[in-house]
Amino acid sequence: MLQSIDALPRVAGAPADKCLEESLSATRPQVIRGLVAEWPLVRAAKTSDAAAVAYLRGFANDATPAVATVAPPEAGGRIFYDDAFEGFNFRREQIPISVALATLLKYGSDAAAPMIYLGATTLETYLPGLAAENGVDLGQRQPLASIWIGNRSRVPAHQDLPDNLACVAAGRRRVILFPPDQLANLYIGPLDFTPAGQPVSLVDPTAPDLARFPRFAEAWRHAVVAELEAGDALFIPSMWWHHIEALDPFNVLVNYWWRRSPDYLDAPVNALMAAILCIRDLPAGQREIWQDVFRHYVFEFDAEAVAGHIPPAARHALAPLDEASASHLRAHLARRLAR
């Protein structure tokens, strides 16, 4: 029998005055209590939802409508597929930020409110100036800052390539996390037809159907949970699965994404899709050969192994990548894949 969410192990935490760098270099999720407690937005939110909305509206760029995800009350706040897996259980609307904020405030006390969710909204585009008053010093990192605004919602477990510092600015969040090695036990849905860009687990961890998803019981053994109040932050390392619940009628989260690799490198999921296209359906013996080829040239690549027999100017894709050579390789692949 699965543990209740309340019985899951808690994510390791750190106080706000602990060295932030230590938490951001961790290989497991870290809760940083009170990291953004002094943000003006957090202080407004702790006063009231109306105060938080008024503060945010002072920065709203209504000339550029944001994209809102809207689902009927019967969806229970879960952003997911429809029953036939032919579409989704929500629709998307373009709406000015101020209108979205006013609508959320209007529905605040309505138990049958539709789910309204503005996700991955670029901070400087839609709320310019907010970051100047509400920010985190991340040193030499150059993160993308996004804001997530909505009422009660549940985002299925998914992975992100960048490291992620998620800062709760209003409301409460519950995040259930699974290590990357639980891929096979999470029953991931389609790779190229997804609710919000990333493949998601088909299991609802708040009410798992173990008859349909029996291996999820093993994933649950490895799960940890973070319960976050306004002012708290959660560091999610690259590729950790995370299911996110917004628990209150008005919730705001600001997150910072950054990669530990140069921007000119492409997304690994593109290589996965190309490998599905080119390798997965080969005869078994050929797949084994290509597995060895990938091990030699990718996963166990040794630059010294090519240094002795290929002149430096002739190494091309076998040389260390930089912005120019990555661009050249990307163009080469585009030509090869254009059939």
Q: What layout of secondary structure does this protein have?
A:
Layout (H helix, E strand, L loop, with lengths): L12 E3 L4 H5 L5 E4 L6 H8 L1 H9 L8 E6 L19 E5 L1 H10 L8 E8 H4 L3 H4 L10 E7 L2 E6 L4 E8 L2 E6 L37 H6 L2 E5 L4 E4 L4 E6 L4 E8 L9 H13 L3 H16 L3 H5 L15 H15 L2
Parallel strand pairs: 1-2
Antiparallel strand pairs: 2-11, 3-4, 3-5, 5-6, 6-13, 7-12, 8-11, 8-13, 9-10, 9-12
Helix pairs in contact: 2-3, 3-4
Pfam family, one: Cupin_8
InterPro entries: Cupin_8 (IPR041667), JmjC_dom (IPR003347), RmlC-like_jellyroll (IPR014710)
Organism: Luteimonas marina
Kindly describe this structure.
The protein is α+β, with helices and mostly antiparallel strands and 339 residues long. The protein folds into two domains: 5-258, Cupin (Jelly Rolls); 268-337, no CATH class. The protein is 28% helix and 22% strand. The strands form two sheets. A nine-stranded mixed sheet has the order 1-2-11-8-13-6-5-3-4. A four-stranded antiparallel sheet has the order 7-12-9-10, with no helix packed on it. Helix 2 runs antiparallel to helix 3 (49-57) and helix 3 runs antiparallel to helix 4 (97-106). The longest helix has 16 residues, at 284-299. It is globular, with a radius of gyration of 22 Å.
Shape: globular
Helix/strand/pairing class, anyone?
alpha+beta
**CATH-scheme architecture of the largest domain:** Sandwich
Q: How large is the share of residues in beta strands?
A: 15-25%
CATH level 3 topology of the largest domain? Jelly Rolls
Q: Span between N and C termini?
A: 51 Å
**Radius of gyration over all CA atoms, rounded:** 22 Å
Q: What is the count of structural domains?
A: 2
The total of beta strands comes to 13
- Nearest-integer average pLDDT: 95
CATH class of the largest domain: Mainly Beta
Protein name: Cupin-like domain-containing protein
Organism: Luteimonas marina
InterPro entries: Cupin_8, JmjC_dom, RmlC-like_jellyroll
